[in-house]
């Protein structure tokens, strides 16, 4: 076809083609729309994110950490179990695992990984559902820190803008540190440090590559993939992370294969809220000091007086002794093993973090308390056999009768009142009516003395009575002391429980707490003073080291150093002589110490409290519901072994020092039968004992029981001590009546008011005076008057009676009888004295 030249069409350039122009137009419109949209979003969200306080990124609930006296971590208290650490304490393997699992381009992007967003969008489109997210580590940090939980496009955009702002203000290392301290790893663990300690029992800095991969894999679904709940799932996510780390070049193939062969290595699960009685006490005292929120969420450091080594020894020793008693012949109660077998399911729930109420345990319980004598700081505390089964702290809350453990306090009260330790008290039969231990009838002495061959031994010193556990003699010492003096002393010694105003209080029938009794016994190595109170927290500091709380220390003077040492002398004898065989069994070395065992009536409670110069330790064993442990369950056999184990463990950390005698005390030899100065006859009778006495207490007379010395019962008084007559009426304010005239008398003065009868009689000068005349010894007289020469004027009377012979008195040797000792005068006179033999030994071996 022919065209005219002007009709020929010219070929358009490619850039002027229509489809290209259309595409460019769309691109330009899209770009313009994008710019407009970005401007809108920037205007809307950029200003909004500026309102977020980035300092909140570092404000997270943190666990408060508890340390023992040596700076060793022993526990935590928290609402969220989190332990923030610095980036330098996080191993490189942990950072690589997080990058491999959560954010491959973490060190390259600026808060938002747009390639990741596109990749996730394509993947989700192909899957037909949202299966893959594109949130970076920075975005997750923003979401968790500011609680951006809403599922919406607006929230996602806000999160992206906030991530950009965080990246502009913080380094990558700081962002990773904050992220790993905040995220939840399941099973109650927040942050990598808490997770490492909880799952593996090690600090985060010690994690290996396998453990790091496991923790990183848990972030997908912390509870569902927990190695305790789902070991198979935990293996799967760990292996996935390890392979990703290999693909990204964080490890070579050999290292990856070796890591894949490792076990998970998680430790046995435990409930962080069911730890121990000691940690629970620290928690209570921390809350009292700072308030609940600050103590539980503040991330503070709590330095305590607890000693981890002594704490572990006390717990193990108590458990071993109680397990041994469970297998003892004659023990017919529920055992710990029986209770554990019946409630194994409940224990598993608690181990997984659940909370259940256990039935009240019926097995034998125990408690141990060890304190620092100088400060009152608690070094070890065991409040029961199992904190999971029962949170009731028997060391601080349980009130039980101390039995014969209480008798040294009776002696201390007596000596504080002025009674001499050498005071003689009678160990003889006493009607139980006075004491009523176990009933109103019977004879005191049938129980309580911690030996199977108890017998009465007659007079002995109060020192010996308490040291050897002679109950009848101790009761008589109590009678001399009185309940008023005993109650006053106990209150000053730190015992808060009331002391009953009955005679059996002298033998420990009043219920008391282990912590009060332990504090009271610290008087004796403390020269008569004690700490004001017991405590566990030395100080609390915040994350910056600023002091938030510190326990003030104060001591109280209760008794004189002389009385304290006199009582210590008793407890020294009780430990090293009365309980010598038991001490030898426990391999306790010889060091300055004292102690006393105690057994309550019917063997319901077994006690032992003893001390060195540095520490005092108290032990109690018994049931929550009082009942007989078994017949013959003495404190020296049950509680003493636990005490000995703790004291043995304390010797290295708290080396004992001598318990010095005050210079005002002198050791005097006295007779145990009379309480007076010993004579040669006392040595021959083998009744001489040594007692410590002040100058005022030293006996001034020799023994009147042995030898030929007559007893003197007259009390010597100083002149100023004699009573003086005093008018019953004060006459000073009474004015005398002035006489205004002569007394009016009757005519004859019938009542002889002016002239008494003798004064009115005339004087008679003719009164005959008889004169004595000497007579012969062999002569006789007719009557007594015949031997008298009468004065002139008197007629001689004649006697008609027969002569009376006068005989000379002849000297004779009169019979002189020596006074003998009678029954003790401290027995009430209203009841007869009983002369009964000692009760037969109790066959405890039956």
Q: How would you summarize the topology of this molecule?
A:
Blueprint: H1 18-49, E1 64-67, E2 73-77, E3 81-82, H2 92-102, H3 114-127, H4 137-145, H5 153-169, H6 172-182, E4 189-190, H7 192-200, H8 209-218, H9 231-247, H10 253-260, H11 277-290, H12 292-297, E5 301-304, H13 308-326, H14 336-342, H15 344-351, E6 365-372, E7 378-382, E8 399-400, H16 407-417, E9 424-427, E10 430-431, E11 443-444, E12 458-461, H17 462-467, H18 471-481, H19 483-493, E13 512-513, H20 514-521, E14 529-531, E15 537-541, E16 547-550, E17 555-557, H21 561-578, H22 580-585, E18 594-599, E19 605-611, E20 615-622, H23 635-638, H24 640-653, E21 666-671, H25 680-684, E22 688-693, H26 757-760, E23 771-772, E24 780-781, E25 788-789, E26 804-805
Structure described in brief:
By secondary structure, the chain is of the alpha+beta class. The strands form 10 sheets. It has a 5-stranded mixed sheet with strand order 2-1-5-15-16. A 5-stranded antiparallel sheet has the order 7-6-20-19-18, sandwiched between helices.
What brief labels describe this structure?
about 850 residues, alpha+beta, Penicillin binding protein transpeptidase fold, Beta-lactamase, five-stranded mixed sheet, five-stranded antiparallel sheet
